[in-house]
Amino acid sequence: MATRLPAAERRAGLVEAALTVFSAEGFKVATMDAVAAEAGVTKPVLYHHFPSKRELFHELIRNVARSLRSDVTDAVGAATSPHDMVRRGMRAVFTFVDE
């Protein structure tokens, strides 16, 4: 029998699975069935945490935005001049997109 994960950990795993599915298929084509399968859970588990595909997608976008903001903030914080801030900030954005 599978162990029950804490809600926050389960949600994070579902969002990670959604990233994989939405990246491969796009929002319109992606299904909650595909996300549940990618996450290794049943659809009722997925719907317990996210009542709709749109809500899951919004959470995914919020997570990506937080991660990007954090990367840019860290990069800019190490800058030694305004020019260096721009350079480091843009490098952080491009690295984020490339990954």
Description:
The protein has 99 residues and is mainly alpha-helical. It has one domain: Orthogonal Bundle (Tetracycline Repressor, domain 2). Helices cover 77% and strands 0% of the residues. Helix 1 (7-25) crosses helix 2, helix 1 packs across helix 4 and helix 2 crosses helix 3. The model has no long low-confidence stretch (mean pLDDT 94).
Brief digest:
This protein has 99 residues and is mainly alpha-helical. It has helices at 7-25, 32-39, 43-49, 53-77, 82-98. It starts with 6 loop residues before the first helix and ends with a helix.
Characteristic key phrases:
Tetracycline Repressor, domain 2, single chain, 77% helix, 5 helices, 99 residues, mainly alpha, elongated
Layout of secondary structure:
Elements: H1 7-25, H2 32-39, H3 43-49, H4 53-77, H5 82-98
Helix pairs in contact: 1-2, 1-4, 2-3, 4-5
Spans where pLDDT lies below 50 across 5 or more residues: none
Largest sheet: none
Radius of gyration, rounded?
A: 17 Å
Shape: elongated
| Total discrete domains | 1
Question: What's the total helix number?
Answer: 5
CATH superfamily: Tetracycline Repressor, domain 2
CATH architecture: Orthogonal Bundle
Intertermini distance: 35 Å
- Measured as a percent range, the helix fraction is over 70%
What is the CATH top level name?
Mainly Alpha
Q: CATH topology, anyone?
A: Tetracycline Repressor, domain 2
Q: Tell me the series of helices and strands, N- to C-terminal.
A: HHHHH
Averaged pLDDT: 94
Question: How much strand content do the residues show?
Answer: under 5%
Beta strands, count: 0
Helix vs. strand class: mainly alpha
